[in-house]
Amino acid sequence: MEARTATLAEIRDWLTDFLAAKLERSPEEMDSTENLMHSGVDSLTMVALGLSIEETFGFEIEPDFFSRFSTIDEVAKAAHDRVHSPAQEAGGDAV
Fold first, then answer.
1. Residue 86: CB partners within 8 Å, gap ≥ 6?
2. pLDDT per residue as tens digits for the range 67-78
3. Which end of the chain is more exposed for a tag (fewer CB within 10 A), N or C?
4. Largest Cα–Cα distance in the chain?
5. DSSP string for 30-56
6. Residue 82 CB: number of other CB atoms within 10 A?
7. Are 9 and 51 in contact (CB under 8 A)?
């Protein structure tokens, strides 16, 4: 997936697929509105998710990112906003 052109739906699907694979579930079993920690995501999975988001979408995850964005929908929206921010499109890191 090309990060700069990824739609919100594509990012949400990517997150859902990533987490479903880590939790050994089907993507259809994932609730995009449920708090990640309540859905069985542990701290190691959160670290792996954060690193994969950084690699895939090209922005740095702050230490409090998952406390501010705690569902698949919230993480997808935050990632989409950062990927499509003017600073990111100019090649800089969005904050």
1. none
2. 999 999 999 999
3. C
4. 38
5. --TTS-GGGGT--HHHHHHHHHHHHHH
6. 20
7. no
Q: Any residues with CB less than 8 A from the CB of 8 and at least 6 apart, and which?
A: 76, 77, 80
Q: What is the pLDDT of residue 1?
A: 73
Residue 45 tokens, joined: 């999975």
Span 8-19, pLDDT tens digits:
999 999 999 999
Long-range contacts of 51-54 (CB under 8 A, 24+ apart): 52/18, 53/79
Tell me the DSSP string of 8-25: HHHHHHHHHHHHHHHTT-
Mean pLDDT computed over 42-46: 94
- Tokens for 70, please give them: 């705690």
